Amino acid sequence: MKDITALAQAYNVTTRTIRYYEELGLLKPERTVGNKRIYPKSEVVKMKLIVRGKKYGFTLDEIKEMILLIDKDRTGKQQLQRTVSFGQEKILQVEGKIQELQEMKEEMEQLLVEFEGKLKQQ
């Protein structure tokens, strides 16, 4: 069990970010008698998935869909299938961006060659 401050520190986010994830239904902390948020292991695992998902460019809606599948199917099979599907889509997007950047790099290199040639002519 972690409190909100410990969870925030563990994942290098703010406590406000964690409360926002709660508002979206991504996290559901338990409460102490004093109404203090505490996060059992299952919620800590969800937080890890959220952080990992954000790192790889998934939207919060996509992350939420994957997390909700954890609660629906305790075997984890549906969640893994959806994660694989989202992952394949994300890889295609990344490959597209890589191609765009490669083309941009080649254009810039071509322009530099042209500009260097013009400098030598002057």
Note down, in words, how this protein is organized.
By secondary structure, this protein is mainly α. It contains five helices and three strands. It has a three-stranded antiparallel β-sheet. It is elongated and about 80 Å long. The mean pLDDT is 94.
Provide a short characterization of the protein structure.
The chain is built from five helices and three strands, in the order βααββααα. The chain has helices at residues 4-10, 15-23, 41-55, 60-72, 77-121; strands at 2-3, 30-31, 37-39.
What secondary-structure arrangement, pairings included, does this model have?
Elements: E1 2-3, H1 4-10, H2 15-23, E2 30-31, E3 37-39, H3 41-55, H4 60-72, H5 77-121
Helix pairs in contact: 3-4, 4-5
Strand order of the largest sheet: 1-3-2
Approximate helicity band: over 70%
What's the mean pLDDT score?
Answer: 94
Low-confidence stretches: none
Distance between the termini: 71 Å
Coarse structural class = mainly alpha
Tell me how many strands there are: 3
Biggest sheet architecture: 3 strands, antiparallel
The gyration radius over C-alpha positions equals: 22 Å
Report the β-strand fraction as a percent range: 5-15%
Name the overall outline.
elongated
How many H/I helices? 5
Summarize the helix and strand pattern as letters: EHHEEHHH
